[in-house]
Write a structure and sequence with these properties.
With 422 residues, this protein is an alpha+beta fold. The protein is built from 10 helices and 17 strands. The strands form 4 sheets. Strands 8, 9, 10, 11, 13, 14, 15 and 16 form an 8-stranded mixed sheet that branches.
Amino acid sequence: MARYDFDSYTLYEIKKQNVYSVKIRVILKERVNGAVLQTSAQNAFRRFPYYCRTVAVNHEGAFILEPCDQPISVTEGDRVVRLGTEETNGLLFAVTYEDNNIYFSFAHNFCGGCGAMRWIQGTLWQYLTDLGHDVEKTGILTVDTPLTAEEQAEPDVASLPDGEPVGNLNFTTDSFMPKNDYIEQMKDPNGMNGYYPIMIPKAQLMKYAHNNDGSPNSILAAMLFRMYVKVLPNESKFTAGITNNYRADVGCPDTYRDMVRQMYVQYDIGMKDWSVEKLSTVTRSRMYIQMQPEISWDKCRKVEEIRRQIDAQPNLEAKANYAFINSPTTHGIPSAFHISYVGKIEWGGLGPFLDGVYSLTFGHLLIEVNATEEDFCLSFQTVRKDGRYLKEFLQALDEEEIAYTVGDFEDRKLPEIVLPDA
């Protein structure tokens, strides 16, 4: 087994490339009361001791996580927060707010969107309760909810069964990659890594998906493919990367920890006139092949082996170099676009107070999908603010008569993660 804390290993990659910053924007129906949020957020955060930790380097040059009893930082103003610094009391979690928005910033090494939502829901419940609202808390982890072994579980690699997946898919690596867009961004001194907030009525999209042999993932993938052939009709191949959460496959269905892998679907220009139903059917069939638990077991074993090799490196620099070069997260199959879906969150009693929930991460032509009770909230993330790609994506929605609203281009202002040196 790897030697150190399960949550510590992606920190080495951050020393080389900070691609693990996450920010989740929650839009409330009323303006935020900062004084109340200050106390509420700090009380709610204590419910999650596995997040109340700071990073240190030990005598072996290894990152270790140490308990921290300092309060979580809660400050006004949407800005770039420097996690792991004095600004955030050394914590890799922080809360900011502005107008009717609350921004939850954190480092991805602890959790992804699914795990973070428990902290976010608990914070919102505490805040709304402290304001005097009577909020139903079924399914929400509040300060008096006992910790469970299930929510803190990590996979036991030695206990995973053996097995070969039935069937396999071979992917080529000649898909279009939007590298030139980064050059265009560099030419613009005011360029931003930004996103367009898009809202689609949940009932309508689910009905459309049902009628077209689809799921939200497969329908959005089809729309993004249609977007690409409008923008780049002379390119021949486009690969979609679709996030798959494999916690349940490795015996940890309720853990806060982030365990995801990429599924891939390849489209070629010969499919440009296919119906959405046919594109969705092909997409789902290729996703289904890749959702076999045997693939997750193999992935989990590979991750464990990389972590053992990180442990074997002699110092922090060597560990960071090895982790970066061998990262299974950042060294996958080249993809033209990505979809990450956290849309199954149940908001319960919090629902009536929410106007939107948007997940923000690093990425270009990446759609992060979240949801309220009534709407899917899409973060259409891009390095271009000239409307390229967005216009064509919206045209694809229009052609299928899928209703939407879209906001202005906004800067993500993702948090920086600052780690100690050896």
